[in-house]
Amino acid sequence: MTATAHALVAGAIASKFPDPVTAASLSLLSHFIMDTVPHWDIGTSWRNRSKRVTGLLAILETVVGIGIAFFVFKSTVALPILALSIFFSLLPDWLETPWYIFFAHQKKHTPPSSASVAEQMAYAIYKTENLFHAKTSYPLGLVTQIVTVVFFLLLLK
Fold first, then answer.
1. 51-76: burial string, b at 16+ Cβ within 10 Å, e else
2. Are 23 and 84 in contact (CB under 8 A)?
3. I need a labelling partner for 33 at 20 to 30 A (CA). Which of 14, 76, 142, 144 fits?
4. What are the beta bridge partners of residue 39?
C-alpha cells in the first residue's frame, strides 16, 4: 500500500482509539492487514527504474501522505497520538528500506552466501515484511487501495 493509505487508516485508528499504546499497536497491525489486499505502490516494479527515482518518489509520496493524514485528522486527534499512529503504520516499510538502498539492485534478488550480517538482516526483514504483500498492477492496485481505505474509514467512524 502507499504511505498515504497507511497514514490515513492510522489517523482513523487514532481518532477511534486515543490510548497511545492501543493506537500504535492497531496501526502497526493494520499495515500488515492492508498489505494482504492486492495493491500497487511506489515499490511495485522498482527494478524497472533507478533507485534514485524510486527513492525520491517514495519520499515524496510519504511526505504527502503524512501531510494529508495530519490535515484530515488534526482537529479530532491529539497530534502526538496521531504522529505515533502514523509512525507505527509506516514502520514496516521503513524497516525494509535498507535492503533496497544498500544491497538490492536490478539483478540481485537474494544476498550471496558470503553476505555480511547487516545484509542478511536487511534481507530477512525485507522477506518477512513481504510475506504479507499482495501486489497487482496500476491502475487496479490503486483502486483496491482506495476501496480498502474507504472500508477502514467507515469501519472506524
1. eeebeeebeeebeebbeebbebbeee
2. yes
3. 76
4. 135
Residue type, 139: P
Alpha carbon distance 40, 35 (integer Å):
10
**Which domain range does residue 9 map to?**
3-91+133-155
Query: How far are the Cα atoms of 51, 118, 121, 143 from residue 102, in angstroms, in the given order?
Result: 10, 10, 12, 32
126 in helix, strand or coil? helix
**What pTM was estimated for this model as a whole?**
0.93
The span from the CA of 81 to the CA of 17, in Å, is 9
Reported as a single tens digit per residue, the pLDDT across 26-73 is 999 999 999 999 999 887 777 788 888 988 999 999 999 999 999 999
Give a yes or no: residue 22 inside a domain: yes
